[in-house]
What we know:
Elements: E1 2-7, H1 11-19, E2 24-28, H2 34-37, H3 48-57, E3 64-66, H4 77-89, E4 94-97, H5 104-121, E5 124-128, H6 136-146, E6 151-156, H7 158-164, H8 168-175, E7 179-184, E8 186-187, E9 193-194, H9 203-211, E10 218-221, H10 234-245, E11 259-260, E12 267-268, H11 280-290, E13 295-298, E14 305-307, H12 308-324, E15 332-336, H13 341-352, E16 356-359, H14 366-375, E17 378-383, E18 386-387, E19 390-391, H15 392-399, E20 422-425, E21 434-435, H16 436-440, H17 448-456, E22 463-468, E23 478-482, H18 483-497, E24 504-507, H19 514-525, E25 530-533, H20 539-549, E26 553-556, H21 558-566, E27 580-583, H22 590-597, H23 599-602, E28 608-609, H24 628-636, H25 657-669, H26 675-693
Parallel strand pairs: 1-2, 1-10, 2-3, 3-4, 4-5, 5-6, 6-7, 7-10, 15-16, 15-17, 16-22, 17-20, 20-21, 24-25, 24-26, 26-27, 27-28
Antiparallel strand pairs: 8-9, 11-12, 13-14, 18-19, 22-23
Amino acid sequence: MNVSFSTRGWEQQVQMAETMRFGGIELYNVHKTPELTGRGGPLHRYTAAATARELWQKGLCIPCFDTACDIAGEDCTETVTALMQLAHDVQCPYVSVTAQRDDDARISAALEALLPAAEAQGITILLKTSGVFSDTARLRTLLDAFACDQLGALWDMHHPYRDHGESADTTIKNLGAYVRHVHLRDSDDDGSYDLIGEGTLPVGSMMQALSSIDYDGFISLEWKPEWMPDLTDPEVIFPHFVNYMHRFDSPRGKKKTLYDNAAHTGKFVWKKDSLISETFPQVLDRMVEEFPDQYAFKYTTLDYTRTYAQFRDDVDDFARALVSLGVRRGSKVAIWATNVPAWFITFWAATKIGAVLVTVNTAYKIHEAEYLLRQSDTHTLVMIDHCLDSNYREIIQTLCPELADAKPGSALHCRKLPFLRNVITVGFRMPGCLTFDEAMDRANMVPREQILRMAAGVRPDDVCNMQYTSGTTGFPKGVMLTHYNVVNDGKCIGDRMDLSTADRMMIQVPMFHCFGMVLSMTSCMTHGATLCPMPYFSAKVSLACINQERITCFNGVPTMFIAMFNHPDYKKTDFSYMRTGIMAGSGCPPELMRRAAGQSLVGLDAINLVESGLDRLCACTVAVLAPAENRVRRIMARDGISRDYARLRISAQPSDGFYREHCSHILENTCAGPAQFRDQARIFFRKTLREIEHI
Length: 695
């Protein structure tokens, strides 16, 4: 239920609307309120865009500019045209007018003069059901005659019922989808006004009539202090209205809220800077529910393009195939491939049935692959033929000579890899293995209901992914990551990048690494963005993808940025749609950061920069609207942003001075953020160092 109230004020009213959980504030006769539209006012042409952004950040909007302009009795063309320009500036969709005189010719002439400007500004003119149009059949005749999308009706519930004796059913029968906005005030038969629900206006039947056309616009409270002299306190009247209207929420459940990105060009599902308790199958289901026809994947080098609905179908089919091959909840499914479609399908299919996806580094040689596959107890391996100088086919045939005599689809028994039961090849054939297409053909062996039941049993705290460390200080270790962990990591990155359905991310970083799987894939798919993966990095191919798909964001390591900057095609590439990205993976030179973040070079409004390593113990994702030079300075100054859900832990061993040395490094060099957070961090670190000394 979207509710608002009509007002002529601003600051106090905005504060009340936010506090009392209204969805918007409707402004009345704003053209007669110079304190709003004059220089320095919130609706002046120089401040209107900032005002719209401020309202959006508060979860508010201006649903309608209501006026008393009588298009049948005065020449208000200039006034209404100016209001439509203002409405466009503050992203208000409607401007209302009235007709108090019975003059059809003058009404039609006025509308003919106004509609071209309305179409140019994208604003809809609403005719109120008052005056001559309290007879809604007459209003419908006029609206039918114009048949224009920029012309609709504002249903003032009071007037058709009180002035014309018209029932709510009759009004909706007459106006139907022409109703774009609603005014509501309650009254008694004697003409006196009451709190909503305490008069004799049939509010219930009116709301039921609205629900019959699935109305999802605003219902705006009309109220003037002189209507109820004995009750003038808005802190009583407004909350009463909100609470009363809650009873008319749809019995099908409260409609899910979608949020706008900063530019209001795209939508996303979950509120920013908040944690969600969703599993990967639930995330995909929600994307399909909200954006079924949004492209999920668009490859420029491979023949694979899928909407979110189509991609879920592929995921469901491969999940059924995995179940037919014996994969169960907790089974380990390893993927040894570059950024091909099978990588993404395997990930989402495995997580859907509660299995654990094991990511395999594409550069692994035989000893590393054997260690990982054996140590992880991999049950099913999905692999491509080779990558660079690593021949996966030869490696697996050496580790599993039993494949030569195995029957594809039957359980494999390998001496060196005792838990491995299946090998699925992508893009090539190998004895004893199913191809990816052959595996997909097994989907009909398992009913869809079975994987839906398995997906329903997956919990946010279940392990979804096992990623192996590099092994710099010993043998690689399989780090077990949960759905809650990975989904929220990706969501928070997407929040900082302001991702939405308007974004198209080119993914050229490898998916076996968290840079690809979390910061790229998960950040996109928790925000309904489109992924444009590159199977391998090539500066020429990446620049071509930016041109072809009008890429709005991409992530990369510094060497990728350097290669693209230095490629001959760089100057021919259209970066006008580019908006944001992440540079990470190694030390980011300040000059490279400035060049990547500079709007004059690649059009980025922001670039997020992440540093990692023992000598760089902080990570920073900077604000979207910060100037480029400020962003670079923040990174160099080790600035940070505190989150109320952030947790910090230091593990120390008493015999190792390494930890004290680096805790001191953090204390002296990292705590350069907001004063309150900096002081708290220093107190925490000093206390921790004292505890380490006494261990």
